[in-house]
Design goal:
The chain contains seven helices and no strands. The protein is an all-alpha fold. The longest helix has 13 residues, at 48-60. The N and C termini lie far apart (33 Å). It comes from Patella caerulea (Rayed Mediterranean limpet). InterPro entries: DEATH-like_dom_sf.
Length: 109
């Protein structure tokens, strides 16, 4: 979802977590792109335009390219989208991915 006026972009820390885990996310989500896309759409992280872009890539390219498109769109999303992404992963049963994705992100106080 491209930034709307007045909305904060995804934090650099959250973007870095996605970038750092790009290969891991690609490898583990390539067979589940529509499941994750639909979950992110339901949580309003993706809008209809984003969903259509991803669908077009799914139809014309390979799964890795589709995941790349989804992750690029996710990184351009609003602040709070990373947390919604993590929630989607949990709800879809990808608990091992949440553990890996969030390792080192949250420091114990």
């Amino acid at each position: 979802m491209d930034q709307e006026k007045g909305r904060k972009p995804m934090s650099p820390q959250d973007q870095k977590q996605i970038q750092k885990n790009w290969g891991f996310l690609r490898e583990n989500l390539r067979d589940h792109i529509t499941l994750i896309r639909d979950a992110l759409f339901a949580k309003m992280v993706l809008n209809t335009v984003d969903k259509a872009k991803i669908d077009k890539v799914i139809k014309t390219d390979d799964d890795d390219t589709a995941i790349d498109e989804l992750l690029k769109i996710l990184m351009r999303s609003d602040d709070g989208s990373f947390e919604k992404f993590v929630c989607c992963l949990k709800e879809c049963g990808f608990h091992h991915m949440v553990t890996e994705l969030c390792s080192g992100k949250f420091k114990a106080v």
